[in-house]
Amino acid sequence: MNTPHSPEAYVISPEDAGQRLDIIVSKYSPGQSRSKIQKLIENNGVVLNGNAVKKNSRPKAGDSIAIDWTKADDFGQSTVAAQNIPLEIIYEDDYLLAINKPAGMVVHPGNGNRGGTMVNALLYHIHSLSHGSAIERPGIVHRLDKDTSGVILVAKTDTVHGALARMFFEHTIEKYYVALCAGLRPAEHAIIDMPLGRNRRDPIKRSVQTDGKNARTEYWLLHHACGVSVVGIRPHTGRTHQIRVHFSSHGFPILCDPLYGGGNDRVETLAVLDRPKAYKIYKCFDRHALHARKISFVHPVTREPMALVAPFPEDFLAAFEMLGFDPNC
Fold first, then answer.
1. Is residue 93 part of a domain?
2. Are residues 181 and 277 in the same domain?
3. Is residue 127 situated within a structural domain?
4. Which of 63, 145, 158, 257 is catalytic?
5. What is the pTM of this model?
6. Catalytic residue list contains 63
7. Mean pLDDT of 237-249
8. Domain co-membership, 203 together with 286
9. Contact assessment for residue 296 and residue 307, using Cβ atoms and an 8 Å cutoff
10. Which run of H or E residues covers position 310?
């Protein structure tokens, strides 16, 4: 992994002024736990205007903070094994790379997944990766669900990792997905603005909740036939399962997503004449039909506009052919 680590510097904005330091640092460090951030502050890994401070310090607007993740307790030699797993690299330079992640691949190790992840493959193929947000996540700036295919960015240096994390936090990185949905015909263009939270009955699921976190999903109907829709999607926020929950709540869940109502029983609710072809399209997938098609951003080092596109996998191409939809039009 990349070393040494360069501290990340920030200037406190008026909207963050007066908040506890650990809360502010958590905003600038997506994916980091509050306990880890508090331990980092205790280890003098966060300095305010050049001075070590306590976690309950409340910076003023215009103050500067520097975050040095090398002082976190869990940084050190990764215990994650490098594995010779094929990776489809869409783009690579000295600072970052983009992977076309296949459906079924977990992004990083966790409980029950110590091997076979994208991180295991990255450690084998890439010699320099950022430390990431934890020891088992070198290079990982953002994630995709296991069964979501498509483009994902990876940082090679800690400086670029910090820059990309800020860009995701500030929503200056634009993500575009394509999905197949079953059920009601979506509007030609709409924005779903519904807050989401953890489902109170099933902790794995998310649901629409009035007191949940803000979540906005913009979409365009690209094609519709036999009760199945091809939809282009731009999420304006990045909540867990956001697209899947929003579409399910509007009556057109993502195809082959039984967790949110897109299973085989959804096909059975379609018009009788639509069911045979819709069922054949459903059978193209052994995972939910969601693909991260493109990611657009300004390169944090070269300042060049980037638009990185992940080719459609075979299941999508087979479904498109049955639908008579040309994804290149």
1. yes
2. yes
3. yes
4. 145
5. 0.78
6. no
7. 96
8. yes
9. yes
10. none
